[in-house]
Each structure stands twice: as structure tokens, then as C-alpha cells.
Amino acid sequence: MGRSAKFSNSLLGQVRAYYGLRQHELAALLGVADSLVGHIEAGRRALTLEVSERLAPFTQQMAEDTVPLPATPPPGPFDPGPLEARRAACLHEAANLRWAVRGLPGQASIAARWARALPGLRATLPPPIAAEETPATPEAVRLRYAHAWLALRLLALPPEELARWHLADIRAAALEAEAAALAGLLTGQGSVPK
């Protein structure tokens, strides 16, 4: 079996590229040895009259071709199975992404509430006792605890959590858009999406 060399700029290379043929396939169609096609294509042998005559119908069609390559798939019936499977996979993956970050909107809201409330809460508390002092009363212990606890409150989502939320949201939206496009394509074919 002949090698499937890269398409060259030779006439045989152009014919192979145009028709999507391997060297051995073109050789079989022309009724010549695989090696001859390889040598002619590489420029080591000249194109013979016999090969030129057998090549003529291929090159004539190439010269007459005015049909551009399609930019989109051609219309017509197709097997909806793979598209329906991909649509279901997109929706499933989008749902998983949204589930994985489901708690982050609530956490962000709570952090925003603390950011708004904290200045007022701190203003109502007496100042804490110095860190080196030992609290003398239960109220002093409570105040030290309250100040320490308020200092640990998140006032915004951590940057890595915010990035994770954005990435999941973008990926889920892209998957949902792909699923919607597939649903439109399937509906246009008469298939009803599930």
C-alpha cells in the first residue's frame, strides 16, 4: 500500500488534495504503480502521456468547479442521535457546574451584609481591652470575644472562590447556549428535544 504523503503543489498533489485521495488510491484510479504517483508528485519523474490522459477527467472537473467549500453543514436529513446525546450531555454538565457553586451566591450575600453592618456593630461595642491584659469580668471576656469574632467576618468572597464562581457560570452559560442551538437544530429537523 502506498504512503499518504503530504499534498504537494504538483498536479497530482492538487488532484489528491481536491478529491481527498491518498497516493495509493490515486494510483489505483489511474491504473499505475503507487511508487510512480509518489515519484511524479515528488518531481523525480515526469508526468507521462498515459497518466496525463487518465488524469484528464479529474483535472477537467477541477477546472470547471465553481462551487465553494461550504462554510456551514449542508441542509438535509441527518441522524439526530449524536446531537441529542450531546445536547443532553451539555445540559447535564451545565447543571453540575451550577450545582458545584450553588452556595456561593448566598455566601456573597452574607459577606456583603456583614460589610454593610460591621461599622455600625463595632460602633456600638465598647473598645476592646488591650491584648496583653487579662479580662477581669465576664463582660470583658464577652467583649474580647465579640471584637475577635467580628474581625474574622468575611466582607467579600475570597478571590479564588469568586474566580471559581465566574468560571463555572461562564462554562455553564456556554453549555446551555450550545444545548439551545442543538435543540433548535433538532426541532428544525422534526425531532423533538427531550
Put the structure in a nutshell:
This protein has 194 residues and is mainly alpha-helical. It is 65% helix and 0% strand.
Mean pLDDT: 87
Order of helices and strands: HHHHHHHH
How many angstroms separate the termini?
A: 47 Å
Total helical elements: 8
Q: How would a textbook summarize the main sheet?
A: none
Rg value? 36 Å
Count of the separate structural domains? 2
Low-confidence stretches: 1-5
Question: How helical, in percent, are the residues?
Answer: 55-70%
| Strand elements, count | 0
Shape type: elongated
What is the beta-strand fraction?
under 5%
Structure description:
- This protein is mainly alpha-helical and 194 residues long.
- It has two domains: 11-64, 434 Repressor (Amino-terminal Domain) (Orthogonal Bundle), CATH 1.10.260; 81-188.
- It contains eight helices and no strands.
- The chain has helices at residues 11-19, 23-30, 34-42, 49-64, 81-100, 104-124, 138-151, 159-188.
- Helix 2 (23-30) packs across helix 3.
- The longest helix has 30 residues, at 159-188.
- The protein is elongated, with a radius of gyration of 36 Å.
- The two termini are 47 Å apart.
- Residues 1-5 have low confidence and may be disordered.
- Pfam families: HTH_31 (PF13560).
- Residues 20-56 form the HTH cro/C1-type domain.
